[in-house]
Write a structure and sequence with these properties.
Structural class: alpha+beta
CATH topology of the largest domain: Nucleotidyltransferase, domain 5
Largest sheet: 5 strands, mixed
Oligomer: single chain
Strand order of the largest sheet: 9-8-7-10-11
CATH superfamily of the largest domain: Ribonuclease H-like superfamily/Ribonuclease H
CATH class of the largest domain: Alpha Beta
Shape: elongated
Number of strands: 11
Number of helices: 16
Helix content: 40-55%
Distance between the termini: 23 Å
CATH architecture of the largest domain: 2-Layer Sandwich
Number of domains: 3
Length: 371
């Protein structure tokens, strides 16, 4: 290795000789220069011989690539660009290269038994990624652009029939495309519906009742009542243990003045309680009681909700019996949203997926020279 002035070009490719950028050291740039003969292959065309300090097709050394990837996972893009003196698009190519190299050395799908499936928006205009998480290791094992049956089938195609048969539990929301593909490809797996999404259905039904009561009060000229109902939205949504004194007083007022809305609130809370009971048999008994109540409550939103829960009863029971939810996947999605902010400016989602696999899949290389 030799050092050259900073004004010298970054990369020089001649016949049989190449230089790889290694590291920027202040105002001095360091390069590795070595013989790298090229050969003509009938299948792959002209290719350059493999060298131990650089990845194929790279203009940087392995140490430089690994440093850039490590920084991209942990640091803002402006800091990476300033420190390494490269463009953000170059960082995207490096991240993609390092991630592919790391994944080629391991078996991502080894010992998959319990997985979680979800989708996350990564860009405006309804651009989504489908992600698959291993519940046992907590790692992101797969991600791809799209959120439909075709996208998810790609994952199971990569997994293979034998490993699909080894999967026992799959957690997901109630999306129909997930249920269809899981039933088709994982015949030995039980689908567990995420309790959070079921409780979210109840919150939406409660808000629908609140809007109906609010509109009725507004049309009837009860301006003060309508204003109080509008301000009661968060008091109705929040868990009882998190209510402020003012919100508790508002709920007490609703209990005295608006029985249908308070009944809807109690139904939302009882359904939430179903998923907080430790013993599955007690939770299932409470769910049965709740369904009987919902069918007779004379609140159209909750009657409709009861039908939806009855339709998805098997998945809800499986979540209660196996104590499995999509909480780990939702936590992964939160971290993915942070990465989408870091990856802002990448030209393609492939670089974002590569960055996610480095950060959340456990493939991020250590800093060169560190144990």
């Amino acid at each position: 290795m030799r050092q050259v002035p900073a004004a010298e070009p970054r990369l020089d490719r001649g016949e049989g000789r190449r230089r790889w950028r290694h590291l920027d050291l202040g105002v001095v740039r360091s390069f590795i220069e070595a013989e790298a003969p090229r050969v003509r292959c009938p299948k792959h065309g002209v290719v350059v011989a493999w060298v131990p300090w650089a990845r194929h097709g790279a203009g940087h050394s392995r140490a430089f690539d690994d440093t850039a990837a490590w920084l991209a996972v942990r640091t803002a893009k402006s800091a990476v660009k300033e420190l390494l003196r490269i463009s953000w698009r170059t960082v995207g190519r490096i991240v993609t290269r390092v991630s592919a190299d790391a994944q080629a050395k391991v078996d991502r799908f080894a010992d998959l038994r319990r997985i979680g499936i979800d989708e996350i928006s990564y860009k405006r205009g309804h651009r989504y990624l489908t992600v698959v998480v291993d519940h046992d290791s907590g790692r992101l094992v797969w991600a791809a652009v799209g959120r439909d049956e075709k996208t998810l089938r790609t994952f199971f195609d990569e997994l293979g029939e034998e490993r699909c048969a080894a999967i026992t539990l799959v957690s997901a929301d109630a999306a129909g495309w997930i249920a269809i593909v899981v039933a088709e490809r994982c015949q030995n797996a039980t689908l567990c519906l995420d309790p959070f999404h079921i409780c979210q259905w109840a919150s939406k039904a409660l808000d629908e009742v609140r809007r109906e009561v609010w509109n009725a009060a507004r049309r009837g000229g009860q301006t003060a009542v309508a204003r109080d109902l509008k301000d009661a939205r968060f008091a109705l949504w929040k868990n009882p243990e998190d209510l402020t004194h003012r919100q508790q007083a508002k709920l007490a007022t609703i209990e005295k003045t608006n029985q249908p809305l308070y009944r809807a609130y109690l139904m939302k809370e009882q359904l939430r309680q179903v998923f907080h009971l430790r013993q599955p048999w007690r939770a299932l008994r409470l769910l049965d009681d709740w369904l009987i109540w919902a069918r007779r409550c004379r609140l159209p939103a909750f009657v409709k909700l009861a039908r939806s829960i009855t339709e998805h009863r098997a998945g809800i029971e499986a979540a209660l019996v196996h104590d499995l939810s999509n909480a780990r996947v939702e936590s992964m999605n939160t971290r993915l949203r942070l990465l989408t902010r870091i990856a802002f400016g990448f030209r393609s989602p492939d670089a974002l997926i590569a960055l996610a696999m480095l950060s959340l899949g456990g493939y991020c290389p250590p800093l060169p020279g560190r144990s």
